[in-house]
Amino acid sequence: MDTVLTSAADPAEPAAGSPGSPGNTGSPGSTVTIGPGRPFAIIGERINPTGRKAFQRRLRDGDLSSIEADVADQVAGGAMLLDVNMGAPLADEAALMTRAVRLIQGLTDLPLVLDSSIPEVLDAGLAAYQGKALVNSVTAEDDRLEVILPLVKRHGAAVIGLPNDEDEIPDDPARRVELARKIIHVATERYHIDACDILIDPLAMPVGADTGHPRRTLDTIAAIRQELGVNMTLGASNVSFGMPGRPAIGAAFLPAAMSHGLTSAIMDARSPDLVRAVKAADLVLNHDEWGAAWIAAHRARQAREQQAASP
Amino acid sequence: MRSEELLAELYDKTLTGNGPAVLDLTRQGLDQGIGPETLLYDALIPSLEEVGARFERGDFFVPEMLIAGKAMAGALDVLRPLLAETGAATIGTIVMGTVKGDVHDIGKNLVNIMFEGAGFQVIDLGVQVSPEKFIDAIKTHKPDIVGFSAFLTTTMPMFKANINALAKSGLRDRVIVMVGGAPVTQEYADAVGADGYAADASAAVARARELLNQRKAMASA
Lengths: 311, 221
Fold this sequence. Notes:
- The complex is a heterodimer of chains A (311) and B (221).
- Chain A has 311 residues and is of the alpha/beta class.
- Chain A has one domain (2-309): Dihydropteroate synthase-like (TIM Barrel), CATH 3.20.20.
- Chain A has helices at residues 53-60, 67-77, 93-107, 119-128, 142-154, 173-190, 213-227, 237-240, 246-260, 272-284, 292-309, and strands at residues 2-6, 31-34, 41-47, 81-85, 112-115, 131-132, 134-139, 158-162, 198-200, 231-232, 264-267.
- Chain A has an 8-stranded parallel beta sheet with strand order 10-9-8-7-5-4-3-11. A 3-stranded parallel beta sheet of chain A has the order 2-1-6, with no helix packed on it.
- The longest helix of chain A is centred in the middle third of the chain and has 18 residues, at 173-190.
- Chain A is globular.
- In chain A, 50% of the residues are buried.
- Chain B is of the alpha/beta class and 221 residues long.
- Chain B has helices at 3-15, 19-31, 36-57, 62-86, 106-117, 131-141, 157-168, 186-192, 201-220; strands at residues 92-98, 120-124, 145-149, 176-180, 196-197.
- In chain B, helix 1 (3-15) packs antiparallel against helix 2 (19-31), helix 1 (3-15) packs parallel to helix 3 and helix 4 (62-86) packs across helix 5.
- Classes of the chains: A alpha/beta (311), B alpha/beta (221).
- The interface between A and B is medium-sized, with 26 and 19 residues.
């Protein structure tokens, strides 16, 4: 049923049957193709207890009831995939992941991004998942690669690679590219995972902590695009952490990142400011032929407004 | 400038994170014969406390906290040797670090700044700090408090591992254990057997003071 397929990094339309050809797994309507030249893939970040105390408490009690609203809000907002993180303190994360995957797949056809750094949790989520999931994430640390990549391969999933190692989150874009290269090398050579099933996270850090951070992320995106040619995704909300006016910061950052080669982001899909910035950038960057998606979104909004106006 | 004026100015410039002005005023104050303790306790520390309070209320943002802390740190570099001479004791010593497996340090650095500002001596072990490294630092520096920071639910269990290591090396009762980080809760801190938790940097300092006072009261009882 639900499937995520990350396309090859080739910006041109991939030939049918090539590793990157869209839609070669999964059923129509449930496949999302991530790739350069395609509409930016919006991954909804909301199903995550970090910073949500009430959700943490519910998860600890095994109560998943509020997920339904999170799914609905993000789907309505424009999410194309949904990130699922069940990492609440003192909760049985693996059991929650299994239940959450089944629950969410009963609510929506959108592909899921299984988000945990605990291999058992990823394994449980992948086992419950129908289709091809995206695993979030593996770092460049040897012991992480050794445990998580076999899971990805066994379940036929795709994976997000974070270019940090045991010592640091490198500031230097060149070092990030080097670690990304290592992840891709190990994944493809040792575990025979297709390069088109690897996304690299170029690491978005808070602009509030250092106003040089976004520039380094943009440079990393450009270098990965040019030197490694793989797809990328990042946690966009990180950028505006600790600052006022967060949506406007995201709405400036994401189009810049897209123009440097970012193909996807884990972001607040409920924010109209952010989603419209992304859709407008798709149009401007020629990822939306004839502006069809942009115009369709306009009509949908008009219809909603008219409906709201007439009781 | 009269002393009161200078102290008020120093307070204002610290609040707005004007590093060069803070350094100038600190030197000027010393030249005028204002004691280093007065500069610290009547201007710098109250100012940084106000920064923390504004941050807690959502009136100040991360960069403002960082730049105020940096301005304060510049003044402290000048004052520290003088404070040592006059025998003004630090409030306490804290060994800080992000736990093993975790490389997040923004929150920890903010906490460090607030502790320094409040008059603590801060020994920062950085990120990815193993239990062994914490033990070594505690043996070397004999801190009043050790602070464990974790940003990930997956690295939070290192709190317990660190506390176990402390117990094993017979240090557990000699040091106050504080824990914090985005996913950490009071309940979790209690569950792993930490002595203290706070939700943000300025609350952490207030909690540390409480814990120190409790310990002193217990020692003198």
